[in-house]
């Protein structure tokens, strides 16, 4: 295992130390492992809390800041944070307007956020609403989920809903826009290589030098099938076609993300985006905004995913609102 | 070779197609392989042109935009662009105020930019000034250079000097701030793995599973030495110590970049930054601004580099000026 770490046991603690040192706009609660805005609003704003297993950076900690999240709970690598962490974050960020939990659809995350919401309501009187993302069209159920996995649309949702909360909308309105984004986005990913979880010390799965896996999950969980390495053009088709088959993306404009899994360099991600854009144009999808880069990763896995979100005027206008976080620059 | 490409021969052309599709704020001259701002200023601004071999993305194409470059010339992977490309870019962006060439110190780049400057002056009467970056303390001469290699400080220079040009400073003043940045920055890098050049189809060098290379270049050219894999803390010391031994970074504040080589995930880069920050604090270096992420990469190489720039008030103020490019968000 070749990694820039001190020891498998201290990866998360050491990374949180680095995030805090690198970004003066956040502060870290090292006991509860929560990343907060260093200068939160005083009152009235609906607060957004997300979180999940670590190893997907910049998601979620890199998205804490003006226009996105108020707090992110960091679990161990690929492991859900605990209800205690989530409860502490929820209580800390509440400004009397309620808190939205943004949860990727994995069994541990869903269960723990649910428990945290109940505890925060019962013990601190915090009103909590929840949105669950489940945008991965690759599989219907999987290793860690009942139903579809939550992946790339989570990034877009945190940006868009963050802008709505920043505008001062109330919890019901913030929850409504979150549900709209969750309902209108679809994703599909693929891997050229496995990731290596530090605590395991070896690749999660074996993928021969001449094979790739289509429909991979962000924890290295199985996708749809394996097949021989193919061209970027062919890979793009295998990601875009299942997305377009699952929902109608004509009519409204779309926001499209070409996301890297962590180990693929930017030159390849841009190249892939060119292929995806050509396919979408051919299919009559009008791309209004794009994002190309590493946004929801899977440690050092080489590969990429495509996310397409149907975006009406409200979503586009929220997408264009200012954002100041380490992990997402102003969307254009 | 596992890459998201169509064929080794078309990597650059296909990536340029993707960049143009992804970023409406740039346009691409596909014949000359130059990335331009889509909406350049009409007149009076000193223009900044850079470029070099591809494979280091987002450098340089991702840095074209308001507050940074006016044009970037893209060579084939790890190969200098030609004087023709540079001459075309120089002529195209000149607004009567002259053009600054930003050149990393590699023999081909230096020679070709020199020829382009002469041609642009002789044939089009464009006044050209040049800054050469040579900040890599790892080696004095190397495979592709006489003198030190130009690496990470190029990123910081393009941001800072871009802001100076945007303010309307004249060519001599822009060149002066460029020279100041080039003189006051130092870098050092390391690799856990080799990169693989698409046209070669196999790793540039062999690096056993239990070894790393300290002082690596951004083209996989040899560094100082190889040694057994070490902890992040130890690696950080091996990068920071030679930098601090080469220049005095106490007194003024510093801008520090922890840069990923392309194949290392963000969680490891943040972890490394934590170690670097602790060492700098111990050495009495006051870090005023930071940048953590993939900014000057080496295809899919796993590893990182550290760049430290001594920054007076003028440099810090230019660093803080707005920037709108795909590759660099507003530095904080």
Automatic annotation (TrEMBL), chains A, B:
Cited PROSITE patterns: DHAK (PS51481)
Record field: transmembrane: none
Signal peptide: none
Enzyme Commission code(s) on record: 2.7.1.121
Pfam families with a match to the protein in the record: Dak1 (PF02733)
InterPro entries hit by this protein: DhaK_1, DhaK_dom, Dihydroxyacetone_Kinase
MF-aspect GO terms: phosphoenolpyruvate-glycerone phosphotransferase activity
Gene name of the record: dhaK
Key word DNA-binding present: no
Record keyword Manganese present: no
Top enzyme category: transferase
UniProt organism field: Demequina zhanjiangensis
Ranges where the DhaK domain occurs: 7-330
Protein name: Dihydroxyacetone kinase subunit DhaK
This protein's UniProt keywords: Kinase, Transferase
